[in-house]
Amino acid sequence: MSTQRLPNRRTQPARQTSLSPIGSMLESCSLCRIPNRRVILRQRGVTLVELMVALTIGLFLSAGVIALYLGMTSTYRVTESQGDVSENGRFALEMLARDIRQAGYDPQSPADQPWVEDYIFGWDDTNPTMTDDTGTTTWTANDWESGTDAIRLTHAAPEVGCNPATDLCTEEDPIDYIYYIGTDSDGTNLGLRLTKIDPNESAPDTNGLIPNVVDMQIFYATGKRIDNFTRPVLDSGYRPANELAAEDWENVFAVKISLLVKSENTNAMEEPMTLNFDGTSWTAPDKALYRQFHGYATIRNRLP
């Protein structure tokens, strides 16, 4: 067997390659030489995957912080609105109940002195008006809100500058207080308004009492007293003003008040509220917080 001898690679001369002038310059330049391979493979900075993971975690953290902030802001709005509504509603009920309890009050009350029979009167979904003895209209609530009730309460005028220890209070002119729901001077915001009609004054005095009271419904309980020592016997429960006859008003001895109050912030809730106000389903026109207030007041001058 003949064997072929392979040429020795080590003995072969190195292949000579001709370099261009630019290549010769790069070859001779020590700064242009390729650095160590281990330095090239060394990691520098972050990879794309690590960057995407960091961004994702940051987005989740940012979303959590934003959600927490929005939740706290919403809770603050609702809490603030609840305090605002509660304050206005309770104050409105207290003012109405106080004047209802004092209706028909006469500090002198002599037997031979004429006194108003209808010391309380109401309007059911009707614009409140006042007339004199001749039937001429003397006052009309031009800012009254349609669909709401109104009430008129009458009692004696207080004596100005009277010292009961040394002087006799002789003031006997009745003053009418008319409560109703109306708009403010701008004609936009609703609220509880009061008109005071004093015979000693040249014109009625109307003022806005409590803002954001958007509805008021009033019901009356009538009953006749058998004698001066027993309470009136209730006729047929609480009724609206349009169900009372003319002769029933002098027998009214108790009043039920229902108020609907809204918050100043019209963006307190996420969606408009729907509630049942005195047996009627009602949907809010905005996102404000609404709350109902109910109260009862007894006319003390009708009780023994």
Automatic annotation (TrEMBL):
Signal sequence annotation: none
Record key words, sorted: Membrane, Transmembrane, Transmembrane helix
GO annotation terms (biological process): type IV pilus assembly
Tree of life domain: Bacteria
Coiled-coil ranges from the UniProt annotation: none
Transmembrane segments: 47-72
Record-linked NCBIfam families: IV_pilin_GFxxxE (TIGR02532)
Protein name: Prepilin-type N-terminal cleavage/methylation domain-containing protein
Organism, as annotated: Thiorhodovibrio frisius
